[in-house]
Amino acid sequence: MITAKELLPIGYVSKTHGIKGELNVRLDADYTTDDVKFVVMDVDSIFVPFVIESSRGNAADNRLVKLEGVDTQEEAKAFVGKTLYAVLAELATLPGFDQSQADKSENLYLSDLVGYTLTDGDNNVVGSITGFNDDTQNYLLEVTLNEGRTVFVPFVDEWMLDLDQDKKTLSFDLPEGLLD
Questions:
Q1: Quick one: which of 1, 7, 14, 118 is 20 to 30 A from 178 by CA?
Q2: What tens digit of pLDDT does each residue of 90-106 get?
Q3: For residue 41, what are the CA distances in angstroms to 77, 137, 146, 167, 174?
Q4: What is the pTM of this model?
């Protein structure tokens, strides 16, 4: 069984592409889907490996990836928002692999924030983070407010007061009127 200590997060699946099961993958590590034969994703709290059938694109940080056995858009939708991991043992065979980078890796992705509770500067619960949008120049958190209405909150570093991964809370100093 694959454990978290054996893995390095390299990116996440941002959306599907086309109708044949391709995934649009955003990468933010020194390694791409071209460097590995398979990627690992958390499926129902189990790390599952997926063989990469093909990987294409001009940008190193934005790739279109086809996984073996994922052949339709419906099948691909199940992976949207999931973090992609590479196995450290496979990366260690690459020239220039830096173990110290892997040891310090604690990347947090927008997809990891889904399910977190958003609070304001006074620790009042604003709502639950139910999604995100990274297709715009500024990243947006989709927040379902306590009253049930959904709003988009820009992910601005200057607004962040605290991030507690244990309690799954994100505290922002939100500008007045943003949630109106």
A1: 14
A2: 888 877 776 655 554 45
A3: 14, 26, 31, 23, 33
A4: 0.60
